Inverse folding.
């Protein structure tokens, strides 16, 4: 069990300079980490088993990317080692102000669409890993739609009677049939959706959770269009980003696959996920049918 007492011992044992700071668990931390506020301006992120790689990944890559991105990201201030029964590396980061974004909470929806496009343009424009330093980059993701074929078709079957499964199947078939990315590998966030955006007063304040960070086809990051935007602002987003038809089709597939995957895994037990993923899938279907 990851509780405050364990976190206090981890911090005191490895970063004694912060041992006396107040500690309190942060609510709604998401599915990958348990997060504790540390003092007024830091946070302790303790990965769950399936996110055990992320502290090392963030430590390696975010300091290189963050200075050239237009929104703050959670660069580690320090990375701790397993201890006291906690089995994974963990991190201390600067606390990023903001609340998890909501579809209806943006003060300027069209401006937000442009900001999202600008963030992705900046990320994609950074040097690929081969240009940064020699070495192995096995920690970076290389997502593939084809690798998700079986799980996505299984998810489509599970939502029979909830969503239009014939239309979902057409979206998926068209995404798989779309021409592949033929440019050089570029950076992608890998999990760029509404739940990983923070806002202050309705304006974007940070992008979080880079566990899916990788290089390759950037289409996966288009999922944000169907999680955070409306049909009108998606058009603004696409124009600002400059997306060709093939990449948009693959992105539509990513939007559907990730939404369905989360829906069948969590919707029955987490109402907030049910609402978010229902919106995501219905937005995909609205684009597919031209509604």
């Amino acid at each position: 069990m990851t509780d405050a007492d364990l976190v206090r011992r981890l911090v005191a044992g490895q970063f004694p300079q912060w041992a006396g700071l107040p500690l309190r668990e942060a609510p709604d931390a998401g599915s990958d980490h348990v997060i504790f506020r540390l003092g007024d301006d830091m946070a302790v992120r303790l990965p769950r088993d399936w996110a055990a790689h992320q502290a090392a990944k963030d430590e390696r890559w975010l300091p290189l990317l963050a200075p050239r991105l237009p929104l703050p990201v959670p660069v580690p201030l320090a990375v701790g080692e397993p201890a006291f029964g906690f089995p994974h590396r963990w991190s201390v980061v600067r606390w990023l102000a903001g609340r998890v974004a909501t579809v209806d909470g943006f003060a300027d929806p069209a401006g937000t669409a442009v900001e999202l496009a600008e963030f992705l343009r900046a990320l994609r424009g950074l040097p690929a890993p081969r240009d940064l330093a020699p070495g192995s980059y096995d920690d970076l993701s290389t997502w593939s739609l084809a690798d998700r074929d079986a799980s996505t078709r299984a998810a489509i079957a599970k939502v029979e009677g909830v969503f239009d499964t014939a239309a979902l199947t057409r979206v998926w078939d068209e995404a798989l049939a779309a021409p592949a990315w033929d440019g050089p590998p570029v950076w992608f966030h890998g999990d760029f959706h509404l739940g990983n955006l923070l806002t202050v007063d309705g304006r974007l304040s940070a992008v979080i959770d880079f566990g899916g960070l990788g290089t390759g086809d950037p289409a996966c990051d288009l999922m944000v269009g169907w999680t955070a935007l409306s049909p009108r602002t998606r058009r603004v987003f696409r124009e600002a980003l400059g997306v060709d038809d093939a990449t948009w089709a693959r992105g539509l597939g990513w939007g559907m696959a990730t939404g369905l995957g989360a829906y069948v895994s969590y919707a029955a037990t987490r109402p907030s996920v049910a609402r978010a993923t229902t919106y995501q899938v219905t937005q995909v279907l609205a684009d597919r049918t031209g509604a």
Notes: The chain is about 40% helix and 15% strand. The CA atoms of residues 159 and 273 lie 15 Å apart. The domain at 100-289 is CATH 3.90.1200.10 (Aminoglycoside 3'-phosphotransferase; Chain: A, domain 2).
